[in-house]
Amino acid sequence: MADNDSETMADNDSETMADKTKVFNDPIHGNIELHPILVKIIDTPQFQRLRNIKQLGGVYYVYPGASHNRFEHSIGVAYLAGELLQTLKEKQRKLRIDERDVLCVQIAGLCHDLGHGPFSHMFDLMFIPKARPGYDWSHEKASQNMFDHLVEENGLIGVMEHHGLVPEEDRLFIKELIDPPKVEEITEWPHHGRPREKAFLYEVVSNTRNKIDVDKWEYFARDCHHLGMKNNFDCHRLIKFARVCEVDGMMQICYRDKEVFNLYNMFYTRFSLHKRAYQHKVANSVEWMIRDAFLKADKHMEIKGHDGKTFTLSTAIDDMVAYIKLTDAIFDQILNSSSKELRGAREILERIMRRELYVCLGDFSSQQPQAIIEAQWNKHLRGGNPDDYVVELVKYNYGMGAEDPIKHVRFYNKQNTDEARPINRAQVSLLLPEHFEEKKCRIYTKRTSNEDLEADRKMFNTFGPAQPHQA
């Protein structure tokens, strides 16, 4: 992603660097011009760290084009957030969207992934839950903490004020936008950054109501591009037909009724990406191996944090000075280490380099919780070591579990643009899916010898839940 300096005013010698926009040449969105404060945030160590965190983690080991990082995705989210809000601002002046609102939402889009760890979701969904069971942590919370750290370490309070922001209000607002509460849990207005009449602003970056937000629009387009897959969803058309309407006393982002097919395309794109790439059995195998290597290395990695305090891989999340040092480079750090303590972790990563991966013995449909299937498998081993296997439950859906997310979208029509209603499935098509989620259980073996693999395959083939059920 190349960039070029571009001044906001023509040939003003007194203009400071803090007042310059920058144009980024992006393969997905073309030439993106970003506000000076966004450029200032991008040019910090905390944001530059995202250059070294793969967007799709282990998927890169299956799809060689998937080498893109959180860095360019985050810039794309900030751009799309600005496009959506500028469209709403121009079409619906009564919403009183001001430049402060637009900038804050763009900053939230830019910073929403600051808290991702090495190999993205492998770290927060696979490693941390095992290394620190029951610990209340998420990459969204880490993004909020890293944003505060970024602002303080780089002296951005003055920059925010210079560009018309009110730091004591807008810092909080930006963090609320990064991780808003689930809509169904809201009884009283929970936010302090903006009042209830601007509730729609909280749906732009992370939409808990129906999962339609610029974060998804961006990664659908970028991931499809790098995976070599077609993307049939058009977010730019959807932006043209977005409109804020009052629904049940809350201002929501709604869409023109004829765009319902475009939205179904969007949700099907999500399903397809999970099915074909995000949950690919080989990609997941690689991530389970990296997870196991990190667990073995955890207590032997010393990461310096604030005031020289030392942290491990799993405790660095509690200190932003330490956490900023955690990127995908940890893989090579372990792989190239000669430390005796890291030998076990190193051997697992060496297996990845030789493509001696955990083998998926098979998968099967299941509605049982993972813990029950795991217990059944461990019993089925009849004395075998459960640590030699991985049992995972994979879910493919439209973003809201087994539910049709379109139920949570409201649509307006050409004749009445201020009133939005649910859409009837029969009005849309008789060919819509009846089910919106499927679950597959996979079992991997860590064992490598031909004899062990043959025994494990026989074990899987006699595992009750994996047997096809007669209709």
UniProtKB/TrEMBL annotation:
<feature type="domain" description="HD">
    <location>
        <begin position="70"/>
        <end position="220"/>
    </location>
</feature>
<dbReference type="GO" id="GO:0008832">
    <property type="term" value="F:dGTPase activity"/>
</dbReference>
<dbReference type="GO" id="GO:0051607">
    <property type="term" value="P:defense response to virus"/>
</dbReference>
<dbReference type="GO" id="GO:0006203">
    <property type="term" value="P:dGTP catabolic process"/>
</dbReference>
<dbReference type="InterPro" id="IPR006674">
    <property type="entry name" value="HD_domain"/>
</dbReference>
<dbReference type="GO" id="GO:0045088">
    <property type="term" value="P:regulation of innate immune response"/>
</dbReference>
<dbReference type="Pfam" id="PF01966">
    <property type="entry name" value="HD"/>
</dbReference>
<dbReference type="GO" id="GO:0005634">
    <property type="term" value="C:nucleus"/>
</dbReference>
<dbReference type="InterPro" id="IPR003607">
    <property type="entry name" value="HD/PDEase_dom"/>
</dbReference>
<dbReference type="InterPro" id="IPR050135">
    <property type="entry name" value="dGTPase-like"/>
</dbReference>
<protein>
    <recommendedName>
        <fullName>HD domain-containing protein</fullName>
    </recommendedName>
</protein>
<comment type="similarity">
    <text>Belongs to the SAMHD1 family.</text>
</comment>
